[in-house]
Amino acid sequence: MNTQQKSQDNAIVRIAAHLPDLIVYGNFSPERPSMDYFDGVLMFVDISGFTAMMEKFSTAMYMDRGAEQLVDILNHYISAIVEKVLLFGGDILKFAGDALLALWKVERKQLKNIITVVVKCSLEIHGLFDNKEMEEEGLDIRVKIGLSAGHITLVVFGDERRNHFLVTGQAVDDVRLAQNLAQMNDVILSPNCWQLCDRNMVEIERIPDQRVVKGCSFLCVFGFPGEKEPNEVTHALESAVDIFDFCSKVPKIHTVSVGVASGTVFCGIIGHTVRHEYTVIGQKVNIAARMMMYYPGIVTCDSVTYNSSSLPAYFFKEVPKKVMKGVADSGPVYQCLGLNEEVVFGMANLRAKGNEGYPLLGRDKEIKYFMDNMKRFLISGCSRVLIYEGTAGYGKSQILKEIEYLAQGERHRTVAIALTKISFHQNFYTIQIFMANVLGLDTCKHYKERQSNIQNKVKRLMDEKFYCLLNDIFHVQFPTSREISRMNALRKQKQVEKLFMKILEKTSRRQRIILIIDKAQFVDKTSWAFLEKLIQTVPIFIIMSLSPFMEDPCAAANTIMKNRNTTYVTLGAVLPKDIRNKACFDLNVTGISRELDMYLVEVSCGIPSYCQELLLNLDHHKVLLFRARESEEKSTVTWNNMFKSFVKSTDELKIYFNVEERNDVVCTLASGVRLKNLSLPTSLKEVSLIQLDSMSLSHQMLVRCAAITGLTCTTEMLFEILPCWDVKMMIEALTTLVEADVFVCFQNGKDLRLAQQQDASFEIHHRSLSLNPGKGMDDKGFQELYNKVIQCHIIRFCRPMMQKTAYELWLKDEKKAMHLKCAHFLEENAHRCGRCRGANFIPYHHFAVDICLNKLDIGTMRELVKSHSHQRKLPWFPTNHNYSWGTWRLRSRTEEETLAPKLDLHKKPELFPEDLSPKEVREQILGFFDTVITKMKEGEETVLPQESCQCEEVLTITMLPLAQHFVALEENHKALYYFLEIASACLLLGDNYMAYVHLNEGHRLLRILKREKSWNQTFELATFYTLKGRICFNMGQMVLAKKTLKKALKLLNCVFPHNLFSLFFHDHMEKKKHSHYLNQQVQDSPQPGKKRLAELYQQVVCFSLLWKIYSMDDYFHHKYYAHLTAMMQVNTALETQNDFQILKAFLDYSLFHQLTGHQGAWFAYELKAVERICRLPLEGEAIEMVAYVAYKLGHIKFFTGHLDLAIELGFRAHNMWALLQNPNKYCSVLCRLSSSLLLRNRYKQLIQVLESLWQLSAEEEHIFSKAYFYFVCLDLMLYCGFVYRPFEECLQFINLQEENTILRFHSGILLGLYSDLAIWYGRLQEWDNFSSFFSKAKSLVSRRTLTTDYYEGTVKYMEGQVLHLQKQIEEQSHKAQDSGVQLLKNLENLLSQKPTGAVFHPRLYHLMAYVCMLMGDGRNCDLFLSKAMEISNTQGNTQEKSWLLRSKEWWYSNAELMEDQWLHTVLNLPSWEKIVSGRVSIQDIQKNKFLMRVNILDTPF
Q1: In sequence order, which residues have a C-beta less than 8 Å from that of residue 403 and are 6 or more positions away?
Q2: What residues form DSSP beta bridges with 148?
Q3: Does one domain contain both 627 and 564?
């Protein structure tokens, strides 16, 4: 009982703190209203500086600043004022924004002494704000105080639910005036207060000629947290007008003034712990109050309210601007004239935001719907309806504006109108506006003119006595007939509808009618009913746009939507390229930075208006920088600008710019801006807050908790951070939120990847589907969704802005606790997937670095573990099998067992005796791979992994959120650890750009940690440089890569030679070490420790890249560095005692020797690699090793021109990787195999491989597979003479995906695609298109890497140069001679480079022969042709051989080439289906080879 009583007392105390003592301890009559009279002293304190401070915090750029700091500062100073008042015996009557009213209730005879006390209190309050601490914090807070004394009346009024109190009287009016007269640091006494005070104690200065104006003010707020609703601005204006109208009718009220302002304000509890209130503070509060004072007798609003109201402009009138006290610049002020919609002729036309010339971007599909329906309407003469549905921001009005323009024509009449929320409540309003336009009344300036028009139009359709029916509709004054006066409203309505139908029938005989209605959700019921009859009676084409109905639409609206001639289109997001184009257009630039582009695409979700708001927000914070674009050739590449490429607008935007006026300007971001932490603009926050506040409290909590986890989380994670929820509660909540488009759910990471594209517009067939507007799905549909959610493992926010908004609602301490919970849960799975044996992405990373939580947080973690020790098995969530051990159905193995098993390096070879011939060795190797494949198929359930690699899913839903949690927790050393892991994972997945982004985040943390003396992690720094070097290498920046890799080796305790003497010394030592490793008894050598292994693995990576870098340099001494680093890779790999590392090193060493022409060495190391895999048991990682060797050998054989062996090995690797379910490796195998088959003209097998590539790209959304697929399709048309996929499809893919970061920052594939397109257009002699793609290819050639894709693309680029030389010669350019000489040198240089694979030599010699032919050098032309033919025969390069024969035959014949020979060939290229069916023979397609034009230069070579 005592506990219950204590709880009740505490509750009373908490409530009492919100009320003054006058009320808490008052003895009131139960009657309402009740009144009390007393004497007292009033103090009005106005605090200046809080509003400016509030504006500063509310517009903070980043999410981690704002409300909480503001609350702390506000309450710090207001609490001090309250404390002073209470100490001096006062009572806080009311907090009013940044002001408060205090009362000292006393007997009349005590007024003199109490006034003295209050004055002293006032002076001490002033003293609170006169200190240096405020100056140091940059705060400028001052107070103005007014005092009054005398009789005061207390009034209490209300009802059974709610009571209010107010104090009135002369003293109240006096204190208000006194405060208004006060300047900073003043205390103003009212006249009565001065008369009653002890004048000997007070020093004064008189203020003459001031009088009191009595009045009463109310502060009304729309949109409090938790109470957000749509159209709040409109509701506020409606309320203002209603209050104004009501109060104006009260006899004793002389003047009514209402000011309405919209924007961000602070709302919350301010004051002292013993006395506080909920209030609002902000500049918008001040503006509303000042407009009320300075514009008496009217309803006024600011420009934000005017623009946000969605009401017609004719509801407002701009009033003269006045200088208002305390308001620096309020902007335009408008008078609200009233919200009763009437037919205002000429003002209800279609309105679309933005200027008239604004382009409609990304809505071609939507316009096609219109064009198709328009065509059917004009041909058939039957009514059609086209409806576009979409939420606010999708650009519905813009689409209709474009349709209005397209619909103009001589034989049809277009009427376009826009409705408002008010229109819905006006009976028959839509049809009135429509008919006013049809009758030509919209341009009439006087009612007599309207009457004349009406008489002319309807004189043959109705009797004159019925004209008066139109008086109220069209604001005319026809005499009212007796017959009409006797009609009831229903009969009048029917007569009007009958007349309108006759008018429209008559009009439609002369011209077709097209009616366009914007915001059709506001069509009134009577108008819907008329439209339903209209489309059945008169041929008319109606185009509408509407937002989803808030309530069930009327029956007529339903009927129209379900009509067989209605096309109902739900608008989807626009493509990323269209968001990019919009940004470029709005900013008037030719390109934007990639980081800005990705931010706009992700956060806007493809909604045009959201993109515009985001840009305005960035501009407001002054983070957008504009500068002239630098030439990529002239700019020096550094780490900071390596990925700072600018995403250009597409060509479709060029028509909207004046080329002469538009400079090549690009937009980038200011230094240090972190877009992911940027706070959203208020307008977008409101969209999310409205949706949040419409949810139940439990659903709000679920959304807020999910926001802590990031954009994506698992269902298990939600259960972890919401432990009190049961299974049924969670499922139902998630189902409801998925239905409401807050979340989208996925069963696994693959589904998540496949769904990363924005929804496009689509057509709904309401005749075959039940209509479900606004109210949600039926019980059956909900149950189906419920069952789907049960199977889900991953949920993701549909829109990032919802996640950001919900995240900002948490308080700082709450956030920290939630982040800690999430981090604790995620760490258990923060490693590679079970398919990859759960290792680190950076081998042995966690052994080399101590990643325990800071001691500060260990206590908290223990409490969390303790409180969640009751974790339970969830029956409905699938277990997180993606990260579990043992998915290979073998015994579980620790990381050290899987990464570093003991090897028998000294064992003598048995598989390949010395007396075997190369052919026998080949057969034995291929036979071994066949045996492995057979065993893999036979033991599929016991040997092979039962699922594909899930590392990408681990990266998305575990590693990335975990790193962000530690950033939020300021656990920088642990955040660094995971960002390095993430960068490594991105490189593993082939995404160089995202690796760069996350490594830069790690770099930022490194700089912070370096300032902490307690932190010393050399390995993390070394790993950072290793990853940096890998990215530089992949991007073709070899100088930077070499520099950073050397830094990494130094930090990894590896001495690297710095001059020739030390080079030869190291070479000698490494040779001895190499011999020692190959001959020692490994069993006798200890296995390296875990930290040492971590270092060795990083060293292996560095050496594997360095030897490739040195191999690409032509300097004499670099070949020694290349040999040394290649050998050091092998030695370091041998030291790890890990099979996989040794195999990779052996095959790399073999490739190095093949590039340098050392026949014996490369063959020996290939045999060593094969011997090693032959001794491994066929289990676990060994299967991948065998598959890797098959692929790598096939790759090497292709690169060196052994095409038949490359194909044999390629098919075996294909079979193995298909069974191993690794998309990236499988893709690499298919790419190389398709290249080999293409050169051998083995088309049937090639098409089968292409089908596998396409299937992989579709099933896994594997962009590289799709890119290579189209690359081969282009090659088939260019070099093989048939079509597998049309050129237009290939071109469309490239245009859509060229900004994909994986393709954009891959060193070869995009170079090959651009070069293919340049060749295509060059052959067609479409030189503008050629130049476009050739210049794009040229920008990528400088990114030189030792990869097949790069050299394949480079050879194609050289072919493009040859075609350009041919053009120069045809045009007799004076530069042709120099260009030809330089081109020949470049071809010879490329041919002489060691990394240029022998497989490309035939094509290079072929091109050199053609250049010599063009230059008139027949002798060298013959020489190069013979060399190309010789190598083609040796390699079995059937494709090049057939082209060489055609070239030789053509060049030395007297036949003349058709002017458009390639165009003729292209138009007649057969499809693959024709070849398969036998309608076209293989011999026939050989004739489709491109014949190079022979235009010999006048000046001989």
Answers
A1: 367, 370, 516, 543
A2: 42
A3: no
CA dist., res. 245 & res. 1065, Å (int): 98
Q: Do both 510 and 472 map to the same domain?
A: yes
Q: State the pLDDT at residue 766.
A: 59
DSSP state of 349: B
Q: How many residues does the chain have?
A: 1501
Tokens of 991: 């995404």
Long-range contacts (CB closer than 8 Å, 24 or more residues apart) made by 1226-1231: 1226/1256, 1227/1253, 1227/1256, 1227/1262, 1227/1264, 1227/1265, 1227/1268, 1228/1191, 1228/1195, 1229/1191, 1229/1194, 1230/1256, 1230/1265, 1230/1268, 1231/1268, 1231/1349
Amino acid at 364: D
> 887 falls in which pLDDT band (50, 70, 90)?
very low
Whether 1295 is covered by a domain: the verdict is: no
By C-alpha distance, which of 103, 135, 123, 83 is closest to 20? 103
Last residue of some domain: 625, 649, 678? 678
Find the CATH number of the domain harbouring 703: 1.10.10
In a domain, 320, yes or no: no
Residue-range definition of the domain harbouring residue 1386? 1331-1501
In 49-173, beta strands by DSSP E = 91-96, 99-106, 142-158, 163-168
The residue that leads in pLDDT, 617 or 872, is 617
Record the tokens describing residue 954, joined without a space: 């681990």
Let me know: does 99 contact 85? Beta carbons within 8 Å.
Answer: no
Q: What is the CA radius of gyration of the chain?
A: 40
Q: Which residues contact 76 (CB under 8 A, 6 or more apart)?
A: none
Q: Mapped to the 3 state alphabet, what secondary structure does 1190-1233 carry? A: HHHHHHHHHHCCCHHHHHHHHHHHHHHHHHHCCHHHHHHHHHHH
Whether the predicted pLDDT of 768 surpasses 70: no
Domain boundary among 969, 985, 1016: 1016
Residue 1182 lies in a domain: no
- Domain tally for the chain? 7
Indicate if 152 and 225 belong to the same structural domain: no
1409 and 1451 in a single domain? The answer is: yes
Indicate which CATH number applies to the domain containing 480: 3.40.50.300
Cα(853)–Cα(325) distance, integer angstroms: 55
- DSSP state string for 1370-1425: HTT-TTHHHHHHHHHHHHHHHHH-TTS-GGGHHHHHHHHHHHHHHTT-HHHHHHHH
Q: How many C-alpha atoms does 456 have within 13 Å on its Cβ side?
A: 10
Note whether 176 and 224 are same-domain residues: no
Q: Express as a percent the part of the chain with pLDDT over 70.
A: 87
User: What is the arithmetic mean of pLDDT over 513-538?
Assistant: 93
* 172, 347, 588, 1394 from 214: Cα distances, Å: 9, 42, 54, 95
Structural domain includes residue 212: no
Task: Say which CATH number the domain at 125 has.
Answer: 3.30.70.1230
DSSP for 735-748, please give it: HHHHHTTSEEEESS
Predicted confidence (pLDDT) per residue in 1207-1217, tens digit: 999 999 999 99
pLDDT over 90 (residue 319): yes
Tell me how far apart the 2 most distant CA atoms of the chain are, in Å: 129
pLDDT at position 343 is: 45
What is the pLDDT, as a whole number, of residue 208? 57
Separation between Cα atoms, residue 154 and residue 164, nearest integer Å: 11
Q: Domain check: are 481 and 627 in the same one?
A: no
- Is 260 in the same domain as 408? no
Task: Grade residue 705 by pLDDT with cuts at 50, 70 and 90.
Answer: very high
556, 495: one domain = yes
CA separation for the pair 233, 304 (Å, rounded): 9
pTM of the entire structure? 0.84
DSSP state of 548: P
Amino acid occupying residue 817: A
Q: How far apart are CA 266 and CA 57, in angstroms?
A: 10
Rounded CA gap, 1501 and 189, in Å? 105
